[in-house]
Design a protein that fits this description.
The two termini are about 40 Å apart. A hairpin with a 2-residue loop joins strand 4 and strand 5. Helix 3 packs across helix 4. This protein folds into two domains: about 120 residues, no CATH class; about 120 residues, Nucleotidyltransferase, domain 5 (2-Layer Sandwich), CATH 3.30.420. The chain is elongated and about 70 Å long. Strands 6-5-4-7-8 form a five-stranded mixed sheet, with helices on both faces. It is built from eight helices and eight strands. The model has no long low-confidence stretch (mean pLDDT about 90). Zinc ion binds next to loops.
Length: about 270
Amino acid sequence: MKSMYQLNQIPSSRQIEKYIRRIVFGKNMFCPECRSRKVVRYEARYRCLRCRRKFSLLSHTWLGNMKLHYEKFWMLLWSWTCAIPIKQTAALTRLSEHTVRHWFGVFRAHLPRETHVLERIVQLDEAYGKGWSLVMAKQPDSRKVAYVILPERSVDRQDAVKFLEQYVKPGSKLHTDGAMIYRGIERWWPVVHGTDIHAKWEFSKTSEIEGTFGNMRTFIRRMYHHVTAEKMPDYLREFAVRFSSPEMFKNPKYYLQKSLMLAPTC
Ligand SMILES: [Zn+2]
């Protein structure tokens, strides 16, 4: 867990501006409209000498409408990368909970799309909530997870098979609990199936995926307090990226590097 010590190390506006310029434009400024490098700066903005467009560091990124001061923005993003709960972040940044919730949603929406196909050994299980069910799998001893959220309150074999077709490599060992939907699953998708019978206190084959479900529930409860069926896909995606790519959350800089860069010059 990161300490509050780091909060005192929020860089200065000038430093943040420098980071952002480097991330968005690389070493040399260019016009985001016509890519010309003939660009002049005036006050906080830039102007292209070729196409005459004006732009700012963020105007052509998804942070184009950001009106917060850089330091406050950084503190907000820092809080999100550290998974500081909404309420605490609001107190810390002196922004309203509504604003914090909005920005956390924006950060979440710009996480990279990840898809993992699992192989070798795959642990698969389901979880249920109000108005949603979740099928999730994990490849043990790796950070690879795959999942699908269903709007129904139950999962049937067809859902499980569809999930396997998409996310589990043929020939893998599939470990599940003894639920009916997995009976004879190897006839529907080529896996070697093994089960734990929970009634007999067997848990070892599915312990990692059960641990992952536990982490997910703790994360959502701690950070967002509760989850609606509507928000579930968003929160789950955030959880999954945090789980698979923890390096993105070490520092606001890493997250911005992955999410903010303008497309490279063709
Ligand atoms: Zn231009």
